[in-house]
Specification:
Layout (H helix, E strand, L loop, with lengths): L3 H18 L1 H18 L5 E5 L5 H9 L4 E6 L13 E4 L11 E7 L8 H9 L2 E12 L5 H7 L8 H9 L2 E15 L2 H10 L12 H15 L5 E14 L4
Parallel strand pairs: 1-2, 1-4, 2-3, 4-5
Antiparallel strand pairs: 5-7, 6-7
Helix pairs in contact: 1-7, 2-3, 5-8
Length: 248
Amino acid sequence: MGNTAKIKESFTRSFPTYDRQATAQRIAIKRLSDNIIRNSGKRVESILEIGCGTGLFTAELSRRLSCRTLVANDLCEIDKSRLPEGVVFLPGDAEQLPFAGTYNLIASSSTVQWFRDIPSFLKKIEKNLAEHGTLALSTFGPENLRELRAITHQGLSYRSLEEWNGLISACFDIAVLQEEYIPVYFDSPPELLRHLRETGVNGIDVPPLSAGDVLRLCKTYEQRYRTEKGLPLTYHVIYIVAHKKSTK
């Protein structure tokens, strides 16, 4: 979907600031973890996390689940000291890496929307799931960052809940398929744009805005969307928990 090199550069640059800006992503992590526990329990022998980034979801998995092995993958080289003790870091492009072995849980939060070929990725990781294993994802839907999209007419082409239902059900038995809208509020348009830059979201493969475009965007955003709470930026989050289809 996106330019892999540009995405890698953007997120690597955002690592020092990501955690303090990742408001919606933290909510998504909590919701996804709750769904994992409700549908698969807290005891998981082995976990593979796709797109660990700064380790927010890694820490949540390590804290809330009892597991023997936790392998964390990311496209970017990361500061391994930020990962919980005992976590094995596996660098590389998850769409290209030949993951070895099998896992009882393969999980990913706020990552797969960047992938170029999600159907092929799902078929690949299905082979790495143990019998009765669980796939758990959070990603973003078509209304993600809708305020910005309405002004700039730019953004990723996200899949809908219905599209995800078709993709996942082809390989897995779906236990959870939900969506949520999470508004994050800012005092000013420049603060909102800084939030996007400091979470790496500006890694999307679209032409950069000129200085004039930025000024017009800020003015239009202020006029259209100012509320008592501030300026909203809406995240449209999709949650998926599914189990490997039985071969018996």
